[in-house]
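Regression report. Comparing outputs from two consecutive submissions.

Submission 1:
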Amino acid sequence: MRDIHINEIIPAIKKLCIDANYYIGEDVLTKIREYREIEESPTACEVLDIMLANYEMAAKEKMPSCQDTGIAVVFVEIGQDAHIVGGDFYEAINEGVRQGYKDGYLRKSMVSDPIIDRKNTTDNTPALIYTDIVPGDKLSLTVAPKGGGSENMSEVRMMKAADGIEGVIDFVVERIRKSGGNPCPPVVIGVGLGGNFEQSALLAKKSLLKPLDYINPDSKFAEVEKIILEKVNKLGIGPQGLGGNTTAFRVHILSKPCHIASMPVAVNVQCHAARHKSVVI
């Protein structure tokens, strides 16, 4: 058994919150450059250039790349041989978020009551925390700030098995078509298949943590991802909804077994920044 003190967790979460908002992943920068080379719309090319300049400025000036610094979504993998000591594990994560959003000058976007009072919590807590128990004695932490514009364009649909993979493809493409420029395209599209209502949504969100050059090891789903991406990029939405053939950078599918009477499908849309940072303690 290995002890991990909360005094290690708090500063780690703080740094992840700041870094995820300041420093965009190299995989995203690479995709923007790749699509810039094949984009046919002059306006779209200009928007992609502005995105690159914005990311470079954010990193250089140590400031958020977007004013919507998102809900702090935290994915945890904790080894079954690890022992958290020194205090409450979830409170340690929330304290890290609290410090990161304060000291990083990140916008606080959480409201305590979702519908009546909608009063801001003033420190961007509580975080949304998802925990998996895994072998070993390590603690893996990933912070994925999720903005409202892209999250609002997400959807879960309880489909029938008879709808087939064609029905799934049509649903995902139609979801992006209806989203238009709202999720700040070019987007990353996370698709969760199977499980049940809530697990499909979590699968879709987890899929957004995959690098943009990740290749699905299941060749069947790798082909479906390719088909969806091609169809989406023919919609003409383009960067920031201003037209072009760069509406999405990538489609990621995660799947789980499901009930014989069900076929849950979730689409979680991510903006072009695809923000997330990870650390292992």
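Submission 2:
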Amino acid sequence: MLKITNLEKTFNAGTVNAKTALYGLNLELKDGDFVTVIGGNGAGKSTLLNAIAGVWKPDYGTIEIDGVDVTAMPEHKRAKFLGRVFQDPMKGTAPDMEIDENLSIAARRGTKRKLLWGIRKGERERYAALLKDLDLGLETRLSTKVGLLSGGQRQAVTLLMATLNRPKLLLLDEHTAALDPKTAEKVLQITDKIVTENKLTTLMITHNMRDAIEHGNRLIMMYEGNIIIDVEGEEKKKLTVEDLLALFNKASGKEFANDRAILS
């Protein structure tokens, strides 16, 4: 579903501020893979997601989504393949619009718009049913403006919007990092439910080693712009934080220096 080959990116090339963020990175995701991505600050995690999303063009290498080469495809055109949830709960929704209006916009994404009056009854019933599955009491608040929701509720709605049309690839960019631990756990439960039920191919960046181990079927760890650890299946299920740190030390020759990832 995703194939990245020899991906390279240097920011501010040719200047004293030049910074190489990705070094010939290779990555393949099978259809239905739920891959968690972890690494320290500057490891290249968000740079990788932005490359896939088309925020910038790589210096070298190719990106394919479901067999389509999107390397040179502009961000707005490749959006039809992708769903994305950002770290900031304020992104991804229109705060001055109601919940059902936000969902309606997401449902029409990538389709030709017609001059129809408002949101149909059948659509509202569908949205209410989907919101009920989130178990946040939002199914009775369709007319509530999204800006009035809590951070966790807003992230849950954003996650629902990003997956309404079953994207080829779901990108989760530390989507629980700005939430308190209890709310973050609830949003991760909702994430697991949506990803599993819809069999979505997913790439989830997290700063939390325990979350990276507990969620998904595969874990990759990045360091200095490349993937140095890639575990899946039974090997991943048996991992502990201590095991992951030991693997990192062996692969990089250094100790992992991000206390937030270890202690979260």
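Expected: both submissions complete independently.
Actual: both completed, but the second showed a warning that disappeared on reload.
Relevant detail on submission 2: The mean pLDDT is 91.
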